[in-house]
């Protein structure tokens, strides 16, 4: 006798026919009717019991083929089994993307069964719907969001993941801040010689303002000079104010203390977001704060556009304005103590067209506003110490925050949509943490988990290092010219 297949609690498949439960079990008996009964196309009905000792379902009376007013359809029955299997796999393994589940579960399915199945998009949609049924209702505003469900306070392997929630301490004055990490993540972050801080808006849940991450570096044993950046801390912020960034950093600091991990980051790399810089200086006053050279160049180009000089900058027949702009950026590679003096030399040589750019650069990046008479002096918004890359160039260490931006771009592709709902986003954090744990294990085994930077980028690094090392052999402006020739925005 063929095996009785019970799909969930309300559907039964047997002998090429599909039955639906017609009423709840009574006295150990469950009543079923052919799925075509409700459309008045069949009258077949069956009754089953469950044998506990044998752990199987049995018929009170074996159904006969002529009970039905239509022929059996084995392919349709098998398609119901496949759909049920897909949903259970999606439910039991929430870390697997629907596409991956389809790839494994659909292998070997016959053409006849495929013809009875919905298309791939609808199958993936049904898997996502099953997962959503197991989630609490998504909050529509931060005011609707209470304590996080237990399943999101842990990693997929059951380890504590939620390390801070401002709601727990009733710290509502700074808004809602939620921070995720693990003990092992924190241990490795403490060992990292550089932290990379960055935020993104695109993959942020719709009730928060920003996803903020802290990445650290791990050495790849294949080449001890080759490091890979890994996300160790994930945070959800309700604003982009200094107090929120400081709250994240203090939560990390508190977790270090809780686990008796000593950590004072040597260097923190970020972009030119003033709120992040202020928070870093407030929480880690002894750490060197460094701003990304790539963003330094972007900021300069925006000023070129603002001043209406974009056409002159991109003029293929006259590269002088572009060249001089890159000489200003090259100030990042002179010794810190020489920045002001060499800027003055460069300023005296500046073309008239660049006057507004020179003034902006001097005010915001070099000298600020100098005190005169009763006018008080104002420090530059971004003093040279946070954008100078002289020591980084000499040692070949990181000069940009591109590793964190690269992670955010990849994470956005994985999430697959802008502004996912909260619990979908938290599920993606858990899956990303699962990938991090695998990566850490592979690194500990001496495996290489990231390709080396492209040769073009490595060659650029080597040229900048060589020129910077020979700083004392150049005339000041000649040094800037040598660096400027290698800068590409």
TrEMBL record:
What keywords are annotated for this sequence in UniProt? Metal-binding, Zinc, Zinc-finger
InterPro entries noted in UniProt: MULE_transposase_dom (IPR018289), Znf_FLYWCH (IPR007588)
Q: Name one Pfam family in it.
A: MULE
What is this protein's record name?
A: MULE transposase domain-containing protein
Q: Which PANTHER family match?
A: MULE TRANSPOSASE DOMAIN-CONTAINING PROTEIN, PUTATIVE-RELATED
- Say if the entry is tagged with keyword Zinc-finger: yes
Any idea where the MULE transposase domain is?
195-297
Q: Give the GO molecular function terms.
A: zinc ion binding
Q: Which organism is it from?
A: Macrosiphum euphorbiae (potato aphid)
Q: Carries keyword Transport?
A: no
Q: Which residues form the FLYWCH-type domain?
A: 8-53
